[in-house]
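Feature request, filed as a ticket because there's no other form

It would be nice if the structure record came with a short human-readable summary line next to the C-alpha cells. Right now we just get the raw output. Example of a typical job, pasted below so the devs can see what we mean:
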Amino acid sequence: MDITQTFYDSLATQYDKLFLDWQATTCEQAVILDRLFRECGFDTRARILDCACGIGTQAVGIAALGYSVTASDISDAELAEAKKRAANNGVEIRFEHADFCALSEVYSKGFDIVICMDNALPHMLTREALEKAVRSIVGQVEDGGIFVASIRDYDALLMEKPPYSPPYIHRTEKGQRVSFQTWRWEEERYQLTQYIIDDEATLQVSKFDCEYRATRREELTELLLAAGCREVAWKFPEETGFYQPIVIAKK
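Raw output as currently delivered:
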C-alpha cells in the first residue's frame, strides 16, 4: 500500500472535519459543477465518472441533482464512507475500487464526463506518472465528452513555496475545530502533514502524512492535449466560486 492510499484510508473517518458543514459543501459544489457541465452543453442525461471520489463530496451532490454517477477511488476506507453518505442522502451511485492510472481495467465503457477534483492529480510524483494518469482518464471520456479537474494554484505556490497553509477554524457546538497543513518542499515535490485539532469536550489531535508534486497548469494542459483532448481551458475561483483552479478539457 503506497503513501497516498494509506493517507486516505487513515483520514477517511475524519475527512469531513476539514469542512465546517460537509453536507452544505457537497450541495454548493454540485451547483458549481452543474453550471460548468451545462456551459459545455451537458445536462442530467450525462453519464459521469468521479475517478477520485474520496468520501463522495462531489459525487453525492451531483447525484442528488439527477445525474447518473459512477464513483471510484483507491482507498477502500473512503469508498466505505462514501457509500454510507450516498445512502444517507438517498442517492444511487455505482461505486468501484479503481486506480485512476488504470481505469480501463475496471471500466469497459466510457463516460460523457469524468471528474477528478480536490487536487488528486498532483499525487502523481513524476511527469511520467502524471502522463499515465491523464492518458488513463482521458481514455474513459467519450468523444465529445469532457474531463473536469481541480488542482491547487501551483503556478503561484512555486514562487514562494510556503511552509504551511492558513488554518481553517470552525466553531462547533462544543468548542472549535482547527485544521491546517505543513509543507516541506524538495524542489517541485512537498511532504504534507495534515493536522486536525478537535478542541471540544476533550482535546484530540490527529495528523496524517502524504506527498505531492506541484503541477503547473502548462504541464497539465500539454499532457491533456497529447492524450487526445482537442481543447483545454482553465477557470479560476473568482469566476467559478470553487476554491481551486479548474481545468476543463474537451475530447
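Something like this underneath would help us a lot:
The chain is about 30% helix and 30% strand.
Residues 22-39 form the longest helix (18 residues).
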